[in-house]
Amino acid sequence: MEMDTVLLDADERMGKALSALEKDFAKLRTGRASTSLVEDIRVDYYGNSTPIQQMASLAVPDSRTLTIQPWDKNSFALVEKALLKSDLGLTPMNDGRLIRISIPPLTEERRKELSKVAKKYTEEAKVAIRNIRRDANEALKKMEKDKKITEDELKKSMETIQKATDSFVAKADAKVASKEKEIMEI
Fold first, then answer.
1. Does domain 35-102 have CATH number 3.30.1360.40?
2. How many helices (H) and strands (E) does the chain have?
3. N or C: which end of the chain has fewer CB within 10 A?
4. Domain ranges of the chain
5. What's the pLDDT score for residue 108?
6. Contacts of 48 (CB under 8 A, 6+ apart)
7. Identical fold between 2-27+107-184 and 35-102
8. Residue 44: beta bridge partners?
9. Which residues have C-beta within 8 Å of that of residue 111, sequence separation ≥ 6?
10. How far is CA 32 from CA 104, 108, 127, 184, in A?
11. In this prediction, what percent of the chain has a pLDDT beyond 90?
12. Is 60 exceeded by the pLDDT of residue 19?
């Protein structure tokens, strides 16, 4: 039973590593507007560091525009300041009711930069997946050493974990290829 738990745990953790990769990708700016670009930006709101999504409505009226409507009229300047301080390179325009952000088309240089960042995120996810494989294999070897499983079961389980690792690494590679295509799209 414990062997199955190790295998399931490894599979679940590898899935979470892929989910984290997807979240990282969502924060990468492509030529299109997306609320995920700004939702994690933190605003110093009454002494607390608050994510924008918890203090304003975010919307995408068209593919090149993002709108932010703070619920508290007094927080417009704070939200603008946080957006300017973020490393997104976006300029907010405040009309008193809404903060509009126009997403400019990316330059070729910026596209290549973002592509490198996407590859870095993918490499980090692959390392995480391989670390999970190592942890699972160590747990299985310990179980075999403690005579909880046989040598054959150990070998079979390690092969299963390797197959899962290969599968998740392939999924990460597919995701980065798709993201790079999206980034390089003009």
1. yes
2. 4, 6
3. N
4. 2-27+107-184, 35-102
5. 83
6. none
7. no
8. 49
9. 183, 184
10. 9, 15, 29, 12
11. 25
12. yes
Rg (CA), the chain: 22
If phi > 0 it is left, if psi is from -120 to 50 it is alpha, else beta; for residue 107 that is: beta
**Which residues does 25 contact at the CB level (< 8 Å), separation at least 6?**
118, 121, 175, 179
Q: Closest Cα to residue 165, out of 140, 129, 122, 137?
A: 129
Tell me how far apart the alpha carbons of residues 149 and 80 are, in angstroms, rounded to a whole number: 60
**What's the CA gap between 180 and 31, in Å, rounded?**
12
Higher pLDDT pick, 159 / 74: 159
SS3 142: helix
